[in-house]
Amino acid sequence: MLRLISKTLLHVSRIGADPNDSEELRFRKIIGVFSVLLGGFPVQVGFGILFIYFDEYSAGWISIICGLLMLLGIFTFAASRQFNPHNLYWLLITVLSPLLITLVLGGFAASGFTIIWALLAPLIALITNRPQHALFWFLLFVLALMTVAIAQPYLRLTNNFPPSLVVTLFVINTMAASALFLFSLYYFVTQNSALIGLLQQEQDKSNALLLNILPKEIAAILRNESRVIADQVDEASVLFADMVNFTPMSATLAPAEMVTLLNEVFSYFDYLVDKHGVEKIRTIGDSYMVASGVPRPRHDHAHVLARLALDIQSYVRSDPTCLSRNLNFRIGINSGPVVAGVIGRRKFQYDLWGDVVNTASRMESHGVPGQVQITLGTYERIKDSFICEPHGVVMVKGKGEMKVWHVISEKV
Question: What's the pTM?
């Protein structure tokens, strides 16, 4: 039985459906059809039969004919799929039928306040049409009330209904209208809560995505302000890590294997970056760039990058995947002033510029595999906390000869 009902409702919901309909229009069509088939048509015919039973033929036939006209609109709608004119047609009958029945039966009291059913029109219009259209139908309902109020002195004083039926109709009409108001309010409140929940989920996703690209401080500025983001940072450190012999290795591996390998290694680097509370700037191929002291200033920016570098080398020397592939990394660190900010409006990223960044990159490219090479600027900042060995000088393009050190370990 339940299966039959569900199949029937499924077929009914497809009346007037069009494959090109948007989700919103499809929903409006379903509500419009169900409001006629489950509400308008049976209620109109039911009341019509009741009125005729008590010898109120005019009111009875008005109600039955209006119900049949609403049902006829379902068939024409199924053939034409033109929802808006049919919706207007159904809403107009929803207002006119209670108005005419109320006038024929003798006004507000004699009809058991049947006019209240006309209030369905703005309620249904609120769901099946634009919100501003619901105001029009509410004004039409008010006009129907005023019409009955003006005509009341000229209407007959009594009808063929026994007093008990008038009272019963008043209770039924009032209860039904109240139930519809409650249902409509409940529907909109639940829909609003659901939409707020979905909106919050999407906002959380977008925030998570943004925070995966940018530091949270920069993401907050982009969300709340419209300005160029560029900061001069006097104290920061920059680290570059690069895989040794990446090009020959990539020639021997399938592209998917190469990407999987880089993803596994750099994912662990990401874990170490989060552990030390520093900022990953970017990866380019097999190169991994990290900064400390931006965008959050910290006095130990050089120390924390030295610890990160030692942890990276320790991971590479002990991880089974790295050992099986004979992976090795050169790491270079430099410290000093940098410019940090966001450039562009599409595919933007947080980046660093300046001589300190370029020199840190040179420390890596001129470094020794398996070693952490640092400049004098970094050495002066960490020498009291780390064991560092001098490694002579290296010739850096645009800088000439530069003294360098290798970080061996942290002092106990």
Answer: 0.58
